[in-house]
# Entry
Amino acid sequence: MTADPLAATAAPPAQTAPARVPARSRRNWAPVFFLLPFFVPFVLFTLVPVGYAFYQSLLRTERTGGTFGRKTTVFAGLDQYKEVLGDGEFLGSVGRVLVFGLVQIPVMLLLALVLALLLDSTVARLKRFFRISFFVPYGIPGVVAALMWAFLYDPRLSPIVDLLDKVGSAPDFLGSSMMLWSIGNVVTWTYTGYNMLIIYAALQAIPSDIYEAARMDGASEAKIAWRIKVPILRPALILTGVFSIIGTLQLFTEPQVLRSISTSVTSTYTPNLAAYSLASANNYSEAAAMSVTLALATFVLSFGFLKLTGRKAES
# Structure
């Protein structure tokens, strides 16, 4: 009797599944290390000072025993914020910089966009020279730039004012009606080249094949700029817009310098100048509350601008 050949065949050994690597051990920590050079200074020089300013704004310094009594620090809660929000001069300074930004930011970004498009055009010559020339004003320290323009605004020293006076039209650049726009001129002159460089860098990232296809379809350089370049530059324009909003609410150097030569700039001309004046008078708690309020307003306006532009892009 012969054995069954199928029964004689041994069954193959069971294969074991490979062991799974835990998800945590597979995690790539490289992005974390690349982000550390940003997050460490951000925490140390932004979050920590803002947190300390908020803590300082909850305190109040009082004197016990009359004018020459001992100073004591007490917890005041949100009383400092009530005083800040009820301060007419501070609210007036906020309204002043908002009007300033509504006019100055669009003008500056439009100039930066036009300069970037001109540099990126096919007919432009000496691109490196003009790119550096447009950026040079940003490299000049803000105090030096403000002093230079103060010389050009002063009717006793300015050759420009002297020339306009001979023509019969000499505006008072340091007067109360012109001071805000004189500061706007300094800011526009300083930061147009900086924003132009950001927009120009975004233009360099656009593939040239798009332009070649548009030219083959008969599109002119003007149509390529308006129909192709400007829509693609939307993220760069939004970025420069956010930077400009933050810089407008932090306006300090130009009015502080011009304050020394003109009575039109008061100690509360801008919110930053108002907080600086309070801190100079040793009123640190209210200055801290004013600074925190300004930081929150900057965040709200910047975030609101991003949401608004994001909705328009989706529609």
Notes: Strands lie at 59-64, 70-75. The longest strand covers residues 59-64.
